[in-house]
Amino acid sequence: MTALCEMASEFVRREVAPHLQAWEDAGEVPRSLHLAAAKQGLLGISFPESVGGEGGDLLDTIAVQEAMFEAGASSGLMAALFTGGIALPHIAASGGPDLVDRFVRPTLAGERIGALAITEPDGGSDVAAIRTTARRDGDAYVVDGTKTFITSGVRADFVTVAVRTGGPGAAGISLLVVEKGTAGFTVDRALPKMGWHCSDTAELGFASCRVPVGNLVGAEGSGFAQIAEQFVVERIALAVHGYGIAARSLALTEAYVRERRTFGRPLVDRQVVRHQLVEMFRQVDVARTYTHAIAARHVAGEDVVAEACLAKQTAVETALAVCDRAVQLHGGAGYLHGTEVERHYRDARILPIGGGATEVLTDLTARLLGYSS
Question: HSE-up of 253 (CA within 13 Å, CB side)?
């Protein structure tokens, strides 16, 4: 594990850090980075070797991603580079050998880029209410609808799409893999954002888009269950993003306040500054420790749906608070575009929204804990 984390850190220092601001300005991560990450074995961690992965489990993924954040990776960079982590699990778990060979293996090899398309313009976090339809017509499904806020949607070679193949509610949802170039499938627009600048985000359109029946992932009507099964991992991953960028911002701030002098003294000599550093450390440590505990329980097979929601909330609130303090303690330097703490501050704001808004997850947790009637 130590060697793997050291390799991940070195990868960021060598392949990412020198170019990250240029990718932020360009609005996307180059495809070559996926190939480089795959050659290092990073993309396949926690995916079974039987589908082209490197093996391991969620705890290995967490350790590697923590190391990458510590070395200077941004939340947006990690979202773009590891987009296979949300596009592939359903195919790896429920898709047949053909889908695995066409989509999972080449993506883990860095040769293809996948995206997951669930959210719709008027749907938000209400997965069971999606309106994009897939009507069976002979050997194909005819897909019509719109998806939005799709991470890697501009660059993606294929998209795992949640569609309605049946009646209303969760039971009518299925998953289809739609390839770029399919007639009727369009990237309608790239979406500029407050943060995650290097992570391309798109609105996708489907107009009489014919998708082969063989691209159905699992059984028809099983889509909602497949999506729900992966939500625990996605929320834990976003928790890692939260305390990961918070920990990095704390480290940058500690170094800065030791060097920065005001009125003849280093900033760190001032009690008010030291106390803020302690509070930042406390928040990061609590979020990391709780997330690790929930992740370990998940790997052990426990039902931790509610706890994963709470881990995400704890970690992303940590990110918001700590990154804000980091900018404040950097003063004017923290407000300049292109400084690392400024980037983390902007990136942090999406975390309480993506993967289920905090308000939605809190209500879900209340139901799971038996607090609602």
Answer: 30
